Amino acid sequence: MVEDVARRNDMEDAQDRLISQRRYRKMVIVVVASVSAVAVVPLLIMSVITYRQYEDAFHAELTRPMLRFAEAGKASIESYLSERLSALAVVARENSVDELRDPERLRTLLLNLNQTFGGVVDLALIDEEGNPVTYAGPQGTGTSVSHADDPWFREVTGRGMCVSDVFQGYRNLPHMIVAILHDAPDDQPYVLRATIDTDAFHWLVRARSARRPERDPVCRRCHSLGVLPFSDAFIINQERVLQSSSRLYGNVLDPTPLPGLPPSRQAELLEIEDEQGEPLIVSYAQIERSPFTLVVLSPRVALHAGWLPVRRDLLLFPVISALLIMAVVIWGSIYVVNRVREADTKRAALYHKIEYTNKMAAIGRLGAGVAHEINNPLSIITQKAGLVRDLLELSSEAPSSEKLMPLINSVLKSAERCGRITHRLLGFAKHMEVQWENIDLDMLLREVLEFLEKEASYREIKVEFNYDEEAPTIVSDRGQLQQVFLNIVNNAFAAVEDGGRIEIGIDRLGDHAVAVSIADNGVGIPEDQLENIFDPFFTTKKGAGTGLGLSITYGIVQKLGGQISVNSKVGEGTTFIVTLPVHRSHA
Amino acid sequence: MEPIRVLIVDDEEELVSALEQRLNLRGLEARGVTTGAEALEHLAKEPCDVVLLDVKMPGIGGLELIKKIKEQRPDLQVILLTGWSSAEDAEKGKKLGAYDYLMKPVKIDELVKVLLSATAR
After folding, report:
1. CA–CA gap between residue B32 and residue B54 (Å, rounded)
2. What is the pTM of this model?
3. pLDDT in tens for each of the 587 residues of chain A?
4. For A476, how many CA atoms within 13 A lie in the half-sphere containing its CB?
5. Nearest C-alpha of chain A: how many angstroms from B19?
6. Which of chain B's residues have a Cβ under 8 Å away from the Cβ of A381?
7. Sign of the C-alpha dihedral, residues A408, A414, A417, A421?
8. What distance in Å separates the CA atoms of residue A82 and residue A163, rounded to the nearest whole number?
9. Which domains does chain B have, with CATH numbers?
10. Cβ-defined contact of A380 to B83 (cutoff 8 Å)
11. A423 touching B (Cβ < 8 Å)
């Protein structure tokens, strides 16, 4: 019954310890989570905001040159076309139809235009029905084929001017048509058409990007775009066919995989994906009075190459900061919770110690009362039996003495044994305060062993007692030393198997100390547990111990000015060594 | 040579009687009383060399009795006999002038040795 209660208490203690461990783990988690939330979350929010702002700023900074390039290119091309249209208009205004009908005059005009602008391949006068009238150019007299169904002719007669798509013209060179309708009230209407060599487009697009940046600070970025292998600038028509050569999509008149671009008179920015799904950043601008659109294009990855180290820094900073904060928070939390746990453990140990002390005091009072009550009648028995023996010794009746003396001696021996039991009880009955007295350690250890001699006998445990003949009497506290050695010897009994061996020795250590060693050949204590062996609530008895015995033993030995140490090897046994001062310690 | 005169003071009459006889058998002159008052009365009338005194007694206790004895007879040796292993009481008794203390149950030879030692001073 008592064992059941003890086992239940041990299980409850183990459960309490488990709950406590969970509680401290939970405490660590709560502290880490709350401190992290306060410290790391604002950092992360700020980092995300900063990251976004940097990304937007960087994107704007990177794409601004593309927009400028598109705007500048648009202006250049519009100027180029406008110059040609204006030149045709001047020719029409300054020359009558009759003069233009003159092939020589037309050739002279072509020559003048080429000298002024260059790139004009031919010049033709076409009547309002679309029939060629006069031609000056590389095809001699030109063709007689009507242009009435040509799209450019319809456009010029409808709008008064026209810039055609690029087409493969004479000698398979890319050309385009620039034409105006001369419709003066005092003259018959006609169309003046010029074929323009579009090599100039290439020059306009590529030469701009090839300008030396120090001479053109506005286009410094354009230059960098132009020289970078991944960027491209070209012109497309409304069907997205190349009107100038492209680094990415091929030569003039090759189709491009670009999607339709929303119409815009100003330079716009767009992000699209190429056929491989790679994101591209496109800046484009429609060229007025023409079917052309100037496109500046760069793969996003390449364009953002400069952004990557900045992004890495922007990401690394919060990540490293958060990791550092987390490391400090976790370390700090564990440290604080450990301190709390230590404080709790100390407090719990103190409570248990108080409880234990009270229990011992109660047992002591009970023992003292019992001893006192027994001692008086025991004294009477001893003295009365002693008196009988005295009388028998003095008696002349030898036969009676011989018969009675053994009986009397037996009574006296039993009384003496009772006396020793009450002595031991009284030893425990002493106060917890240290009470210094002269102690014969040999005697004290023998008294302790008497408590366990029955168990040793039942379990066939061999107890060997070796002591130094010169071991001195020491000044210490009898009751508390009894408790110390009883605890250690009890542990030794628990550690050994039946038939095991326990060796107790007393050795003098110089003039001021003696060492009591208690060695068993039991199971031993694992090395990693040795350092905790004197901690409160630490036990190797797997639910059978309170974990207080050695802790209290340690405390008592310290209080008496001594030291306790332990050596152990698993499977070989354990040796406790208690070193005690010979003289009263003021520790 | 005159025998050593011992006054035994203990509330256990049987013990007093046995000790008285055993000491007498060993050549001492022992007298026993069972109360403090009787002890004081005896000491006032009779000569005595040493008092064997129980600590715990009804009425006048052992420690109080030491004080009174020492007031009357400062040179008289007192040995405490106690079943209460209180070093505190023993120390108190020693401070009050007791020669030594012995624990019950006491061995007669040990007692005689202490009595002889006390009276030899």
Report:
1. 12
2. 0.46
3. 444 545 555 555 555 655 577 888 888 899 888 888 888 888 888 889 988 998 888 888 878 888 888 888 888 888 888 988 999 999 888 888 888 889 899 999 999 988 888 888 899 999 888 899 999 988 776 667 888 888 899 999 888 899 999 988 767 788 899 999 987 776 778 899 999 888 777 766 765 554 443 443 333 434 444 445 567 888 999 999 999 888 888 888 899 888 888 888 888 988 888 777 888 889 999 998 899 999 988 888 877 777 888 888 888 888 898 889 889 989 999 999 889 888 888 888 788 777 767 776 676 677 777 777 788 888 889 999 999 988 888 877 767 777 888 888 889 888 887 876 776 666 555 545 567 888 888 888 888 888 788 788 888 899 998 877 777 889 998 878 888 898 899 889 988 998 999 999 998 888 889 999 999 999 898 888 887 788 766 666 654 555 667 877 888 888 888 999 999 999 899 999 999 999 876 54
4. 29
5. 6
6. 105
7. negative
8. 10
9. 5-107 (3.40.50.2300)
10. no
11. yes
Q: In this structure, which topology does domain A23-346 adopt according to CATH? A: Beta-Lactamase (3.30.450)
User: What are the residue boundaries of the structural domains of chain A, listed by start?
Assistant: 23-346, 432-587
Letter for the amino acid at A185?
A: P
Cβ atoms of A385 and A412 within 8 Å: the answer is: yes
Query: Hey, are the CB atoms on A437 and B12 less than 8 Å from each other?
Result: no
Instruction: Mark yes or no for CB contact B104/A384 under 8 Å.
Output: no
Read off the amino acid at residue A430. Answer: K
- The Cα of B61 is separated from the nearest Cα of chain A by a number of Å equal to 15
State the burial class of residue B30 (Cβ atoms within 10 Å of its Cβ: 0-12, 13-18, 19+): buried
* CATH numeric code, A432-587: 3.30.565.10
